[in-house]
Write a structure and sequence with these properties.
homotetramer, about 200 residues, mainly alpha, Arc Repressor Mutant, subunit A, Tetracycline Repressor, domain 2, 2 domains, DNA-binding
Chain lengths: ~200, ~200, ~200, ~200
DNA sequence: AGCTAAACGAGACGGTACGTCCCGTCTTCAT
DNA sequence: ATGAAGACGGGACGTACCGTCTCGTTTAGCT
């Protein structure tokens, strides 16, 4: 069989401890100030056990994301039949959850990590895609129901929404109701003045 | 007179050398791997000369932005009378410029810096605001001309556009024509299906 | 019968491989830089197989000496009837053999080991004693033959000779003919001037 | 002028602290178990300050000897006119001093160091030479006074005496009166039986 | 012209963290 | 039961940088 090599197996206990410690450090200190020494100590693990599995700080963070230690809780939206209301609810939930200081700082940290490293960026992308899934699904249902235009670039819309929200988080601006409302209005109605057409 | 203290004056040659070296390091290595020692050596300057003026890495980067060493070239748009065409042109220019590898990596580095540090974030915000200025001005003109809706949240629109573009840069996705076109369509027309109203 | 326990018996092949690898490491690197990991790899043996039999680095080296992997070839001297000539021959042989670079470095390594560790020192002492044996025997024969003084502290003489030789090896001085001749003269005749008595 | 380089000067306080800590570690742990980390901590010094001046553990120990932090107190001998008595006194003093546990362990450590490293060996040699100086001087005076044979290889005698003593220290044998007396007898009278000539 | 003082390059300092090597132990599979 | 393979918690290695602190030197304003 494949995995029947001799030698001790990888300790899942250690793996979990390392990833938890990494997430905590990331939240508390940010990506820039991550310290492998500190993570090892906090996880009660030898440094080599970290380096054995992760060639670099970024791979560690990447696995942290992959293993689901750094997740925005997936936001669900009921399908009330009114797309705009449902999407607005989703955005409002996201905004609310983002106002938690620790969530915001973890988001900033992980975004910085993604910005600086290719490997992290890939996993980050996957993770955000999952977050967007509900949004995309609801939008698609709206298209099918004829409420949204047939040729709507559903994923572009989702990305634009998430991009706008992340931008506010990164620049440390409030995700307040005014912004959310304007964003929803923008997304749905656009800015063209149709009265004078 | 103020500032007429005795002693040697701050060397502008050194200041410029430091900021240039910082920008180069930032482009090449990213914010995370910035090294003051290396900057000092590259700039041919003693470390103390850096620390005399910048209490920390982030302040240095902040001044680097402030002094215009890290700028996206301000993109101008002619007012052809057609708002949508003009905005599309602006976005397309931004996208094109962002496809330069060094511009993209510098953008990522500085965004990471902003994500991790408050002081940088503030200057970053200012800088992006300047970048958005043309966009905002053109949009406002469109509103005045009656082409756009009166209550358009002009700066929210600008932020959403920039947010979406930055998001693509951060996640290392192509800023291709399809995305740009869909973004423009989204911004102007929204996604609601007006046929079946 | 004793030792008839169940299970696989200790592999003499492994034991030999370990001791040989230890001797080689010792010669090449010295006691200070001995590495159990490297020995295990070189011997094609698991580390545990070493630790099962040797509680520490020093015990390993001690057994290495005990098992005769680290020996100065026993120097024999014919009994020509002339003690002084025979002893001189012995010393000259020892000196010659010590001029081999690998023999010298192994001697230094093992001496360092003995200096730093009690257990090694004991075995070292035994080993040197064996080396001295021929010397002591020949000296004793000389005493019996009336050529040497009756109350000669035979083992003190042997130790002094060996001590002097080792001292030259440790300090990396040549064991040249001049030194050997002076040593022999010293041992046999002493330094007192008998002419003017 | 020569030494007018820019930059902060080497801290003599740190140098002294490092050498003292090294000597203490050497006495307590031996050469093999020397730890630069521990020395740095004990000396209240950054590790780099050690590595800046000493490329390796052995260079550090070498400077420690050179700077006189590891010395056997120089043993003086009055010239009573009786060479044998004076030399015996010297040896007895050396033996007595060597019975101090810390002196013995430091001697063993430094001898191990000399055995394993060329650079240390050179300085060690110098240091021992100084120790032997008194001995050599007294012997030479004995030769001049006609008490010793004219062609006595004075330094070979000194080396043999010291070599024999060090050998006993290395192998952890007592430097008792019996040994000392036999050594003195051997050195002065040799072992040849003159009665029956 | 001489004095005082700030800024400069250079570089040593006490430290923190890095990524690697090795220690001695423990676990797993194969013989 | 023994053995090789190899992961584990931990200690030390030698290096890179941090931010601070002297140094000798240069440049300015003030007397």
């Amino acid at each position: 069989m494949a995995g029947d090599r001799p030698g001790r197996k990888r300790s899942e206990v250690s793996r979990a401890a390392i990833l938890e410690a990494t997430r905590d450090e990331l939240t508390a200190e940010g990506y820039d100030r991550l310290s492998i020494d500190r993570i090892a100590t906090a996880a009660g693990v030898g440094k080599q056990t970290i380096y054995r599995w992760y060639p670099s700080k970024s791979e560690l963070v990447a696995d942290c994301i992959l293993a689901g230690y750094i997740v925005r809780p997936v936001i669900m939206t009921p399908d009330t039949g009114d797309v705009r209301r449902d999407i607005a609810t989703w955005i409002r939930s996201f905004a609310k959850e983002s106002r938690t200081p620790s969530a915001a700082s973890l988001t900033r940290a992980i975004t910085a990590a993604a910005a600086e490293d290719n490997a992290v960026a890939a996993h980050y992308q996957d993770q955000v895609t999952i977050t967007q899934e509900t949004l995309v699904t609801r939008l698609r249902a709206g298209v099918d129901a004829g409420q949204l235009q047939k040729d709507t670039g559903v994923s572009t819309v989702a990305e634009t929404v998430v991009g706008a929200l992340l931008y506010r988080i990164l620049t440390r601006q409030e995700l307040d109701d005014v912004f959310v409302d304007e964003l929803v209005e923008l997304i749905f109605s656009g800015i063209v003045n149709r009265e004078e057409r």
